[in-house]
Amino acid sequence: MTSKPEMTASEIASAVAGRRMSALDATEAALSRIKQHDGILNSFTDVTAERARAKARAIDAEIAAGKEVGPLAGVPFAVKNLFDAAGLSTRAGSKINRDLAPAKRDASLIERMEAAGAVLVGALNMGEYAYDFTGENVHDGPSRNPHDTTRMTGGSSGGSGSAVGGALVPIALGSDTNGSIRVPSSFCGIFGLKPTYGRLSRARSFPFVASLDHLGPFARSAADLALAYDAMQGPDAEDSACTTRGLEPTLPLIANPVSDLRIAIAGGYFQKNVFPEAVEAVSRVAKALGATKVVDVPGAARARAAAYVITTTEGASLHLDRLRKRPNDFDPAVRDRLIAGAMVPAPMVDRAQKFRRWYRAQLAEIFKSVDVLLAPATPCTAPKLGQVNFNLDGVELPVRANIGVHTQPISFIGLPVVAVPVPLEPLPIGVQIIAAPWREDIALRVAHALEKMGVAAAPAPRGI
């Protein structure tokens, strides 16, 4: 049996564990697809072929010896290049970081994926220092949308979205500070999970905004998303935000009915600044789930503004030394925003943090009477590469600044979200399934139900 692009991670792992396919065959198939298509997609910055083959051979040897293998046995995966991967310099999408010594140890999440039997095949393109919504890296070139290679993948986890959307790998890992998992999921037509803040370890990954950074998986099905997520769960003393929650497996729960869930549509702010395709996607999801209640989210516009303040000031603080010593080695758009962040007055930052506490309390109140909120993941389908503005109701809006208009108010307080792909024509677009803190299980249940209904699906790549 040979691995095919449409095989899910679950199918690959089952075939490998059942000796119907070897882990090495699954790995070689992924490496072959990367070689065939990545010249167009530009998803990968590094391919770890020999490491992958060695891991796959070790898995096959364990199976031959009659040993138990993990739930991801033989499943190829790749990671955004801000994850430490032993032997590679952790680029974080930048020119400057290429001077770093190669990492000596893998990021915690890579270790956990490989402990479950997954096989790392490479590192993925991303926006510089994760400060990006488009997927257009000035040093490595843009990652390209697998459904139309003239269009953006979204960022900053653009290579992750492109690699999974293009079926080069069934699972990829990315990061989400203001929307960088949910935006590429939407544009590339795949499932993405931004977990609760503090749920998955960020140990040995390059930071952006410590109080907003999340790591999470991309996949082509809700079940694969849950499978990867469960493999990575658990406290980690090396990440101070990830020390309080034990394992809470979600894969056994995703097939549970959703008829008992209280599902509402996020109104007000979340129904503004949207193109017809975003309206249509939310409408389809809501109709399938029988959701008619509309709930206003008070302060969402201010939450987005406060998220900008905290992002730019924390990001600037992290990069001050690099800005002083090597300003010309930054993407100018990233550099200028970081410099602006360094000049934000401290009282403004204090106000943003105080507002965050108030806003968190408002959402906690909403989730007393609602289990799930539905909202657009992006205001539109993927724009053209290099597109500067889009026209909405006769108003010209900057693309880069407005792609994350609906994601920022959610990650601002660390809520768990599954982005589900709605396969519209000619391009897919995502919808956010937003749950209360620590309730990834509910968001994944809804995503799985929508997939079974045929409303959410990852379409086959059309551009390669």
UniProtKB/TrEMBL annotation:
Swiss-Prot/TrEMBL keywords:
Transferase
Metal-binding as a keyword of this entry, yes or no, is: no
Gene3D superfamilies from the xrefs?
Answer: Amidase signature (AS) domain
This entry's Gene Ontology molecular function terms read: transferase activity
**InterPro entries under this entry?**
Amidase, Amidase_dom, AS_sf, Carboxybiuret_hydro_AtzE
Basic and acidic residues: which segments have biased composition?
A: 138-150
| Keyword Transferase found | yes
**Which residue ranges does the record assign to the Amidase domain?**
25-441
Residues annotated as signal peptide: none
Q: Where is this region: Disordered?
A: 138-159
Q: Which Pfam families match?
A: Amidase
Would you tell me the protein name for this molecule? Answer: Aspartyl-tRNA(Asn)/glutamyl-tRNA(Gln) amidotransferase subunit A
